[in-house]
Input
Amino acid sequence: MKHHKFERTLVIIKPDGVQRSLMGEIIKRYERAGLKLTAIKMTKATPKFIEKHYTLDPEWRRITGEKSIKGYLSKGLKPPSEDPFKITEVVLKYLVKYLTSGPIIVMIWQGAHAVAIIRKLTGGTEPLTSDVGTIRGDYVLDSYQMTDTDGRAVRNLVHASGSVKEAENEIKHWFDKKEIVDYKLVQEQILYDVNMDGILE
Ligand code: CMP
Output
């Protein structure tokens, strides 16, 4: 089995993150946790490319729909539909519009438990209920109620892969192998070396 330190995840700073000048702040949070940036680019995505990104996982429509139904119910609100697929059909249209509205930053982060650590630092989908201390909890204020009223996607600054498999599919979708840089960070010796050798002179 490959060592945990090789786990990778894909992160997108969405157009609102770029426009609100939060790129550095977001990168800083992942960087200071000990993760390693191995690819980064700014791009303007096409609608087709975004739709493909969100539907790489055949389960995405069901999971996203169920998650937003739960969000409504937990607040005592009636979801717009009981059918998760109906909800995601609309959400996908909103998402394509949102993610193509301006430049985005696409990144690969690597390190032990990269997927889970990045999701933890990023926070839950809906900023209204994202934990304090997370990127979505600290820097934005959107809610499902607001997006329903206005007919748009939740503005939550960042996308982060939901599982190792999803991450690997998303990385393939966004990056050529030659865009990814293999290198060692000196801090990895402290994070991963079993004996923390080589510190004392
Ligand atoms: P992300 O983590 O990129 O995954 C799917 C995105 O869809 C999510 O962030 C939100 O931006 C958006 N989203 C999810 N559920 C809803 C919803 N019910 N209404 C509007 N946008 C949503």
